Amino acid sequence: MLSTHNTAPSFFLSLFLFWSIIEPAGANELLIEDVTLISPERNSPLNHAYLRVNDGIITEVSTSKLRPEVIEGKQPSVRVDGRGRYLIPGLIDSHVHLAKVPSMTWRHKQQHPDLERSYLKQQPRSYLYFGYTSLIDLNVFSPEAIETFTAQTLHPEVFTCSKHLDIANGHGMMEEDVKTRLLNNPNFLYDHYQKQHLNGEYDLSQHTAKATVKRIKDDGGVCIKTYYENGYGGSEMVDFDIPSPQIIKDVAVEGKKQGIPTLLHANSWTSQRVALLADVDIIAHGMFHWDEYRHEVEVPAPIRATLKEIASRGMGYQPTLHVLDAQRSMFDANYLNNSSLEKVYPKKLLGWYRSDEGQWFKSRIRKYLPRHLHELDDEAMHEHFSKYYQHNVKVLEVLAEYDANLLFATDTIIGQSYANAPGLSGYIEMQAWNSAGVSLRKILQAATINNAKAFNLEASIGSIEVGKKANLLLLTKNPLKTVEAYNSIEWIFINGQAVARQTLAAD
Ligand SMILES: [Zn+2]
What are the C-alpha distances in Å from 295 to residues 86, 381, 433? Predict the structure, then answer.
């Protein structure tokens, strides 16, 4: 059961919030005093810790009391009483897509512009509400949407892979018009290993691994997102081109040369073996599809061997249990009764999701499935997705056993389901990892330092160390003791600016 905790803020914190409004963000010195500091690079918590923050950057971590510095022309230091509280780094979700509104098509947005607007305003606050201070958008479908997101007064910082890097006519452009898709994806990759057919004349020297990776980097991308999709575990006809493993390898090699990691969309046993062949840096999904082992319940030896290799190479792995959870939750009659949804979705939008019109996606999902599944009732549909979900859980169990380099990521929003609640989906994902037997220490690492390292961001985020941004969470519960700690956030610090959690709630 999800619940929220509204602990009365301490006197010091109330005072700080007041100052943070009248002073420019980060201009004050901030002291967090006598707190239990839990940072992923430490083997154990630092008890009775003191932290100094200047201009949004952590400048001192100590176990002795720190003296406030008097700086001419500035307000006196702000002091936060951390007694009985836990301080952790802000969380990082390394697989989001910020441009979509859950369960709203283009037509719905035309009909209900107020609902769309209310969502876009709330979205950054909902991520912060659940402690996400950094997000990595794996493909910017719409730079304008990211601009809207970051134009809000309070928002997590956003990094992107720029536009996805897909081969001509690949999975990433299959929904676009065949006549215009290459023009609309000017950075498409040409797979010369399979002598692809292109509609039209193109200067192929502009579509090599080297040229395309460079453009992503020049665009400010911190990563490369590419695809190896071979038909959703055989459930669908493939009407797009599948890249050769060699061209993916070329991209990954080029990414390493230019200093940005390559993520491969790969959600089947076949595609994750391609990820190994191509030696990509990060696998962007769990293994939903076990291909010829689809009827097995436990992870068979050959798949175990693949997972062991992924773990031993230290390849980043995003299990994204949320992907199938978001699909099956559409068929869960209780999902919309979860009271935490009121914290992350505007009230009117939540009301619309409960209406007949708002439930449209359920029938659409059925259409995408093979014909023999069209007549399944809601319960049977839930069951259907649960089967793949369980596969993913079993894979995560094995990866945890092999101590894989797990990266915390939700893929919010995936598809069109309203069960893609920003922020809350991350908390649900954490609970799912916990039930799958991933230790609380590993969950914290995956959502902080592992993500920071995998995306070359560890100089500024991912742990509580001198020189890093003061993106921090103050919790009333210990995240090494209970996963519920991630729903016990009292204060969120963004670049040293304190924000009381309850002020971020949609209700
Ligand atoms: Zn995705």
Answer: 44, 17, 23
Distance CA 451, CA 405 (A): 9
* Residue 23 CA, ligand 1 centroid: distance in Å: 38
Pick the CATH number of 92-454 from 3.20.20.140, 2.130.10.10, 3.10.300.10, 3.30.70.1140: 3.20.20.140
pTM: 0.92
For residue range 368-419, list pLDDT tens digits in order. Answer: 777 888 888 899 999 989 988 999 999 999 999 999 999 999 999 887 899 9
CATH placement of domain 2-90+462-504: 2.30.40.10
Size (the chain), residues = 507
C-beta neighbour count of 377 within 10 angstroms: 9
Sign of the dihedral through C-alpha 100, 383, 434, 279: negative
Q: Count other Cβ atoms within 10 Å, centred on residue 378.
A: 12
If you measure from the C-alpha of residue 96 to the centroid of ligand 1, how many angstroms do you get, rounded to a whole number? Answer: 6
pLDDT band at 234 (very low <50, low <70, confident <90, very high): low
Q: What's the CA-to-centroid distance between 145 and ligand 1, angstroms?
A: 16
Residue 79 CA, ligand 1 centroid: distance in Å: 41
Ligand 1 centre distance from Cα of residue 300 (Å) = 27
Q: What residue ranges in 67-171 does DSSP mark as E strands?
A: 78-81, 86-89, 91-96, 132-137, 157-160
**Token pair belonging to 382:** 């839930």
Could you tell me the distance, in angstroms and rounded to a whole number, from the CA of residue 69 to the centre of ligand 1? 46
Q: How far is the CA of 459 from the centre of ligand 1 (A)?
A: 26
How remote is the CA of residue 165 from the centroid of ligand 1, in Å? 13
Tally of CA atoms within 13 A in the half-sphere of 160 that contains its CB:
21
| 265 CA from centroid of ligand 1 (Å) | 8
With CA atoms as reference, report the closest residue to 344 among 154, 123, 96: 123
Number of other CB atoms surrounding residue 220 within 10 Å? 11
Q: Are 31 and 38 in contact (CB under 8 A)?
A: no
Q: What is the DSSP string of 22-71?
A: HS-TT-SEEEEEEEEE--TTSSS-EEEEEEEEETTEEEEEESSPPPPP--
- The domain locations on the chain are 2-90+462-504, 92-454
Can you tell me which residue has the tokens 């304190």?
498
